[in-house]
Every structure is written in structure tokens, then in C-alpha cells.
């Protein structure tokens, strides 16, 4: 009994220690900068541009991510097909892939290849452009969203869909009437996590879209550029904005998870 | 051609499979499917409704081959053990769901009508998760029946209910099925469902249909010891010694049984006796019409609700008898007692 308690206490202590360390790290982000300086920086031209571009590209990427992750998650959850394991691995790959390498791969793909030229002819040039920011965010966030959507659909009893079909509804109708409404919390959780992931994407955006001042400058790029210039005030302000967005995202995600 | 036919159905889903399953049903037949867990019963239902494509075999309903039809075109309803009600719809919306696809007018009236018949009209505004198991099951039944399916499939629909609710729901189910004139396939583990609802029975094991037929045939004449055990009958092996005007005298491990079934002397046979077809007596009964009076030792008493199952040893054979609990008290029966088992010749069936 004594040994058991010691073991329990040790594990709890490790958990508390790491939590405290993380908490102090995050709190220091809010305590170190001067409030006036942060307030001033938030309304600077560069920060407003960066915030606007981050939110805009984040929303567009999240929309695209959801458009693709819902069908991918459903297909992986419900259907057995040749190459399913391969699809799963490739879609999951960016989770473990370094962002910089993913960015490099996307740069090569959308650069001077037939696909890049095809997109270019349609007016979609992704290299060193704002559109590139969206694409970089999309590929970075897609695996997370697909995983959440697959788990969400796994959790929905397929027999509800069976019943709907036995009552005369086709597979797409059943998806719209039954599967999607039942997955709404998962969709919300997935969208929130995707948005947070998109807003925070750095490496992929830097390589594909470039980190150009006031052109492809999103919040992580602002942080990076200002650290490079030695402008700690702006760097910390962009860090705080990113952290606040993440906190809100995690809070909504937790809420959605609770009712899932 | 029958109203519904399954011909040589083969399906292999890895863990579960069906092999060479064939049977026919007439309109308004009520088939109960019984068998151990993993026998392939649910796969059978989900193949009939179209969720699994068979590797081989055909399924016909009203002379139409529906083997390759999608589920939504088959007009076959399904009710599951856990109800599968749509949690984001109210009870009204659940019941009306299938009807909305079929018609645009008169939905409200039809929903109210079926809700009244299943005694759930006071629940229409509620969400499914706020209902009791019995209420949810009646909603699931209403939802399946309101579209007037050509056939209704039920996968252990009453097994999650407490005994009292199960009895009530069974009664409502019987009325509803009779009212709609629906042909039913019902998977169950509960023999009460079989006795009170079915006119046909199929027994499954390891993906194979071991026996299919009218209720009385399957229960009175089980084709194998496994089936006999499953339907609580006793199977005894013996040899026909005599045949007097179509009445067979069978030697079973040193004692004689008379059966009204015809058999040839010298023929090795198996006889089936149902536990409820045996009467027990303290003294040797005299001047009775029954052909068989066997002296036996009471080995074991197993209480099962209002009845008890007695294991009687007659020479080297064990025979199961079903008696009311009150009989135990009246005859003061205890394990080890010498008693007599009385069986009519008509109830000793050569199988």
C-alpha cells in the first residue's frame, strides 16, 4: 500500500512539475512585455496587416481543410478500399513531417512542374504569394482535421445510417440528414483545431509563400522577422496574439469534446 | 414462388460468414432466428436489407430479385436491439423521418395514429435519449412500421428490456405486426419470443442454417443434438425393436419407449422429447392412456422463474422435464427421489 502511494505521488508530481513549467513559460509571455508597448504594437500598421492576413488566410484554409477532411474522415471511417492504409499514411505524414521539409516539397510541387504550371495558367500561383500561405496552412492542418473527423465518424453508430437507408434515403441523403448533424461537434472541434493550426503555421508558409514583410507576413512570420531585427516588442506582441488565439481554440475544442 | 426467398446465400466478412443459406417465407410469416452468438444471424439480416453484398446467392421479394438493389430501394425495415433512434431528432421527427421521403401530405395524422396504437403519443415532443428502453423500442418500431415495409427485420428488439417491459412490448409488437400484416424476421435468444410470436424458426450455428421449418417441427423434431439442446429438448438414441400397426417400440439403453411414429424394426433411430411433454408422478400411475411410464431418479432441480427444470436419470440416460414450481412443493420433490416420468407415445418423436 505504501509503495503504491509512493508510485502515485511520483506520477502526480511529474505531471504537476511539467504543467507548472509550461504554465510559467506561457505566463511569462504575458508578464514580460510592457502593457503599453503591447497596446501600441497591436495597432501598428504591420501588426494590423499581419493579423488581418492571418485571420483571412486562416479562415480560407480552415474552410478548405473542412471541405476535404470531412469526406476523407468519412471514407476512412466507413469504407474498405484498396490502398486505404496508404492513403491514411500519406495524409497523416505531415503530422510527423518537419514543416520546413513539407514547405520544400510543396515548393517543388507547385514550382516549375506541370502541376505548378497548370495551376499558374488558372491564375493560381502559390509560390511566394498569399495564395501560397493558404496552401501551406491547408496541408499542415489537413492531417489533424482528417484524424478528428475519422474519430468522429468512428464514434457514430453506423446502424443509424443503416436505418436511414432502410427508410428510403440514399447514401448522400443519409450523410446529409444523419451523419453530418451527428458529427457537428466533431466538425466544430476539427475546424477550431485547424484554424489554430493554420494561424500558427510557420515553417511551411516560410518556404512556400516566403516571409516577405507586409506581403506574406502572417503572425508567426511577424514574430520571426521582428526577432531577427531585434524588435522584441513586436515579436512578443505577435506571440501574445497567437497564444490568445490558441487558448480560445483549445477552450472551444474542449467544450466541443465534452459534448461529443 | 414464395413471397420471400433466400437462395444459397454465401457471404464472408472475415470474422463473420454465412454459408449456403436458403429458405422461403410466405406473406405474413413470422420467422424467429435463434443460435449462439457469432452464428451469423445479424449478417443474415444486414444482407437481406442490403448493407452487405453477398459473394454468392440471390434474394427475392415478391418475385423481384433484390440482391443488387441498394437498401433504400428494397422497402425492408429494420429494428435494432439498441433502437438506433436518431438522437438529433424528436420522437415525432424520428417516426416521420421515413414517411417524409414517401409522401408530403398526411404525415402528422399518420404519425399520431401509429403513436396512439403503440402508446407513445404523449412522447412525440421528447428527445429519444430522455425515454426509457421500452419507450425507445416502441418509437423504433413505429418508425419502421409507418412506412409499411414489405418486410420487417428485428435484431433482438426486446433483449435490452426488463422482463415486465419485455412482455408488454411483445404484446404491442404482436398487435402492430398483425395490424400491418407485415412479414417478419426476428433474431432472438428468448424462447418466449419464439413461442409467443413466431410461426417459423431457423437455427443458425457457425454461419450455417442447421434447421428451418414450422415452429412445432423444429421444436418437436430437432435434427441434431445441438439443436435439441438449444431448444431444450432431450434426444435419445435407440433401436426399433417392434412395429405394431405403425406404433414403434424403441429400445433406449435398456428401457423401452413407445412412439406413434412409424419405423422399421432393427433401424437405429433418435427420438426427441420436449421437456413440457413429460408428466412426473410420485407413484406408478395406473389406468392411464400414456404409453410410457419410466422409473427415474431425480438428479437435479434448476429453478427458472415460475418453472423448474428437472433432470431425471432413467438407466444411463438423462431426460429434462419442465414443471411448475408449485408442483415441486405439492409433490415434495428433492434430488435423489425415485419418481415416474409419464410420456404420451405421440410426444416421443423419431427425428
Question: In words, what does this structure look like?
Answer:
The complex is a heterodimer of chains A (about 260) and B (about 350). Chain A contains 13 helices and no strands. Chain A has about 260 residues and is mostly helical. Chain A folds into two domains: about 1-30; about 35-260, Orthogonal Bundle (MetI-like fold), CATH 1.10.3720. The longest helix of chain A has about 35 residues, at about 45-80. The two termini of chain A are about 35 Å apart. Chain B is an alpha+beta fold. In chain B, about 25% of the residues lie in helices and about 35% in strands. Chain B has ten helices and 20 strands. The longest helix of chain B is centred in the middle third of the chain and has 18 residues, at about 165-180. In chain B, about 40% of the residues are buried.
H/E series of chain B: EEEHEEHEHHHEHEHEEHHEEEEEEEEHEE
Give the H and E element order of chain A: HHHHHHHHHHHHH
Oligomer: heterodimer
Distance between the termini of chain A: 37 Å
Q: Could you say which overall geometry of chain B the principal axes of the C-alpha atoms support?
A: globular
Mean pLDDT of chain A: 91
- Low-pLDDT segments of chain A: none
* Strand proportion of chain A: under 5%
- Stretches of chain B where pLDDT falls below 50 for ≥5 residues? none
How large, in whole angstroms, is the Cα Rg of chain A?
22 Å
**Whole-number count of domains of chain B:** 2
Radius of gyration of chain B: 24 Å
For the secondary structure, the number of strands of chain A is: 0
Main pleated sheet of chain B: 6 strands, mixed
Percentage beta strand of chain B = 35-45%
Q: SS-based structural class of chain B?
A: alpha+beta
Amino acid at each position: 500500500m505504501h509503495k503504491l502511494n509512493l508510485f502515485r505521488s511520483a506520477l502526480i508530481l511529474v505531471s504537476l512539475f511539467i504543467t507548472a513549467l509550461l504554465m510559467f513559460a506561457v505566463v511569462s509571455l504575458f508578464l514580460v512585455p510592457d502593457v503599453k508597448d503591447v497596446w501600441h504594437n497591436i495597432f501598428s500598421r504591420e501588426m494590423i496587416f499581419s493579423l488581418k492576413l492571418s485571420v483571412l488566410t486562416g479562415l480560407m484554409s480552415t474552410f478548405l481543410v473542412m471541405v476535404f477532411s470531412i469526406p476523407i474522415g468519412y471514407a476512412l471511417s466507413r469504407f474498405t478500399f484498396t490502398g486505404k492504409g496508404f492513403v491514411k499514411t500519406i495524409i497523416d505524414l505531415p503530422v510527423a513531417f518537419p514543416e520546413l521539409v513539407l514547405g520544400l516539397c510543396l515548393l517543388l510541387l507547385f514550382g516549375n512542374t506541370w502541376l505548378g504550371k497548370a495551376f499558374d495558367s488558372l491564375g493560381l500561383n502559390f509560390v511566394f504569394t498569399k495564395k501560397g500561405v493558404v496552401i501551406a496552412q491547408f496541408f499542415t492542418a489537413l492531417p489533424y482535421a482528417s484524424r478528428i473527423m475519422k474519430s468522429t465518424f468512428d464514434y457514430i453508430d453506423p446502424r443509424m445510417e443503416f436505418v436511414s437507408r432502410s427508410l428510403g434515403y440514399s447514401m448522400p441523403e443519409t450523410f446529409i440528414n444523419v451523419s453530418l448533424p451527428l458529427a457537428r461537434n466533431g466538425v466544430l472541434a476539427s475546424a477550431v483545431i485547424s484554424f489554430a493550426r493554420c494561424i500558427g503555421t510557420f515553417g511551411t508558409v516560410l518556404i512556400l509563400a516566403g516571409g516577405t514583410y507586409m506581403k506574406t507576413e502572417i503572425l508567426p512570420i511577424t514574430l520571426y522577422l521582428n526577432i531577427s531585427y531585434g524588435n522584441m516588442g513586436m515579436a512578443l506582441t505577435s506571440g501574445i496574439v497567437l497564444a490568445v488565439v490558441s487558448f480560445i481554440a483549445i477552450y472551444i475544442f474542449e467544450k466541443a469534446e465534452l459534448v461529443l | 414462388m414464395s413471397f420471400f426467398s433466400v437462395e444459397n446465400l454465401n457471404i464472408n466478412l472475415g470474422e463473420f460468414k454465412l454459408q449456403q443459406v436458403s429458405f422461403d417465407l410466405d406473406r405474413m410469416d413470422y420467422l424467429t432466428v435463434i443460435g449462439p452468438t457469432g452464428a451469423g444471424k445479424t449478417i443474415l439480416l444486414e444482407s437481406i436489407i442490403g448493407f452487405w453484398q453477398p459473394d454468392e446467392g440471390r434474394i427475392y421479394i415478391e418475385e423481384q430479385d433484390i440482391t443488387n438493389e441498394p437498401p433504400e430501394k428494397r422497402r425492408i425495415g429494420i429494428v435494432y436491439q439498441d433502437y438506433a433512434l436518431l438522437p438529433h431528432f424528436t420522437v415525432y421527427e424520428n417516426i416521420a423521418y421515413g414517411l417524409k421521403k414517401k409522401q408530403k401530405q398526411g404525415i402528422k395524422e399518420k404519425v399520431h395514429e401509429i403513436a396512439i396504437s403503440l402508446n407513445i403519443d404523449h412522447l412525440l415532443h421528447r428527445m429519444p435519449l430522455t425515454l426509457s428502453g421500452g419507450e425507445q423500442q416502441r418509437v423504433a418500431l413505429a418508425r419502421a412500421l409507418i412506412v409499411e415495409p414489405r418486410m420487417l427485420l428485428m435484431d433482438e428488439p426486446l433483449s435490452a428490456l426488463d422482463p415486465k417491459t419485455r412482455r408488454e412490448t411483445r404484446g404491442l409488437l404482436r398487435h402492430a405486426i398483425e395490424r400491418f400484416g407485415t412479414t417478419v424476421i426476428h433474431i432472438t435468444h428468448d424462447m418466449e419470443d419464439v413461442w409467443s410470436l413466431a410461426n417459423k424458426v431457423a437455427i443458425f450455428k457457425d454461419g450455417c442454417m442447421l434447421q428451418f421449418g414450422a415452429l412445432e417441427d423444429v421444436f418437436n423434431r430437432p435434427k441434431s443434438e445441438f439443436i435439441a439442446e438449444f431448444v431444450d429438448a432431450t434426444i435419445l438414441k435407440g433401436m426399433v425393436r417392434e412395429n405394431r400397426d405403425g406404433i414403434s417400440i424403441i429400445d433406449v439403453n435398456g428401457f423401452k419407449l413407445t412412439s406413434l411414429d412409424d419405423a422399421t424394426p432393427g433401424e437405429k433411430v433418435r427420438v426427441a422429447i420436449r421437456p413440457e411433454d413429460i408428466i412426473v408422478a410420485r407413484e406408478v400411475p395406473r389406468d392411464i392412456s400414456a404409453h410410457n411410464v419410466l422409473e427415474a431418479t431425480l438428479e437435479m432441480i434448476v429453478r427458472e422463474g415460475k418453472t423448474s427444470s428437472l433432470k431425471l436419470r432413467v438407466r444411463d440416460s438423462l431426460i429434462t422435464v419442465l414443471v411448475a414450481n408449485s408442483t415441486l412443493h405439492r409433490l415434495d420433490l428433492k434430488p435423489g427421489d425415485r419418481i415416474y416420468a409419464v410420456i404420451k407415445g405421440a410426444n416421443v418423436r423419431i427425428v
